[in-house]
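Cont'd.
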Amino acid sequence: MIDQTIIWPVIIAIGIGSFALRFMFLGPVGRTTMPEWVQRHLRYTAVAILPALLVQMLKGPTAIDPDARMIAISAILLTLLVSYVTKNLILATLAGGLVFILYTQIF
Amino acid sequence: MTTSSAKNLFWQGFKSGVPFTLVIFPVGMLFGVFATEAGLSIIEALSFSIVVIAGAAQFTALQLMIDQETTWIIVLSALAINLRMAMYSASLTLHIGSAPLWQRALVTYLTIDQSYAVSATKFANDPHMSRQDKVIFFLASALPVVPVWYIATLLGAVLGYGMPSWLSMDMALPLVIAAMIGPMLTNRAHQYAALTGTLVALALNMLPLNLGLFLGGICGMIVGTETERHSFKKQTIQK
């Protein structure tokens, strides 16, 4: 499925990059200055990008089978709702997964 | 400070981290299972968790690898998700920036959402903690979480290695990612950021190089920060 040759480069690159991000201010002892207003933006990258990633999954080239798209969207929305209300990742995944499996098995 | 204070802070930190184990374990297992199902070896899956220690970035990279995205886009996307780590770094420098390099390096490696969250709260509530105590507390708070992440990934990877992929991988990963988003929507700022990211990515979906994703991220960041700024202003005015 995945191109085997890129796995290690990806892991190492993300590892080094993440360490660099975490070390950015702690390492050079404040030598790296970033204006405070820029810093405040960093808090929101994950919460903005993850939904964008979901959108891409639904519409991209290797996306979900178009016939199943409506049920896929419904399952995802259900998962979102459950995870928002319960803050429980496993429960939310199971809820959406169950709905999706049931629907595709029955129809 | 005295040894008893050090031990005290250690256990406080450790106890603060323990509640997260409940979530970290199943999520770690999920990652292990998905990673091996997607074609990673057990070693590769485990290494991923050891080297990165960041679930959202790891799952994102996995999905993008499955989507056959180009390598540097996969890496940039995952790092974009981890940008908040730089913010954590800036915040932690105020407290432990003067610590010896080896301690700072250790703190850096163990900077995760959980250790940062409990430590930031603790440092704010106890402003008179010594730098030494802060380091001890921080490291201790990561102790219940990080090894569990490794072990859970390993278990999941071993489990998933032999398992036939009857789970619709197409849907499984998007569902997990959707499940991660819910708990992040803690206040208006985060909610609007998520909404903006979604809408922009939808509108700009046709752009190459995953630009829709990054632009969605940038717009979402801006909206989130502005919302935070305005609600803060409203709060201070009301006072």
